[in-house]
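Consortium newsletter contribution from the modelling node. Members have asked for a concrete example of what our holo predictions look like. Here is one, prepared for the zinc ion complex that several groups have been discussing at recent meetings.
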Amino acid sequence: MVKALYMDDSYLREWDAVVESVSQKKFIILDKTAFFPKGGGVEYDIGTITTEDKQVFNVVYTGKFSGKISHEVEKAGLQEGDKVHCLLDWERRYLLMRYHTATHVLSGVLFKDYNLKVTGNQLTTDKARVDLNMAEMDVNIIIKSIEKSNEIIEKKLPVDIFYKSREEAEKEPDLFKLAIGFPHDIDNLRIVDIKGFDKQADGGCHVKNLKEIGTIIFKDFINKGKNFKRVYFTIE
Ligand SMILES: [Zn+2]
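And here is the predicted structure:
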């Protein structure tokens, strides 16, 4: 199991690594990585892998395959055993961290105040899409929930990460109420704790304090069918 460095430090943006394997010349497995693989509705990281002799390989996609994080580079040349330096496209990653944490806040409000659950989400650097199990179309609930989310963000609550055994975590079903993120390990679950507001089992990247999110802006609300309503928002 490759150690995902972003699990313990979402702010790590460069590090040294060794190429563990190369398949089809362009799919790279590293001994350790902070590149986030597409998952839990969140887009993948991009960036660069640079060799000791200063050859630069652009990482154009990161995905998880057979439990390993695979980096797709745009040209051949990396070899097993190469010592490399990795660098994230930090602007992109940080924006995704802000969007992802904003989704935690909004989904927490929707659940606590209206008992609505998030059934899916898709976060890009342009906008966030959140799907809800809402029966009747009620845009006021969405507008009010976004207003309340912004009030919570203004409280500048810290966001902590800790680990809990599955046995312990299963005593708190609310930890699994959202379909966002993914626990990374069967026996030891990673919990994201927005202090004093909401906790979730989650494997993604978050900002350290809600103040980093900025402001959530409502964009659109679409009826996709019974118990299926879709919200779009941006952050500024
Ligand atoms: Zn999360």
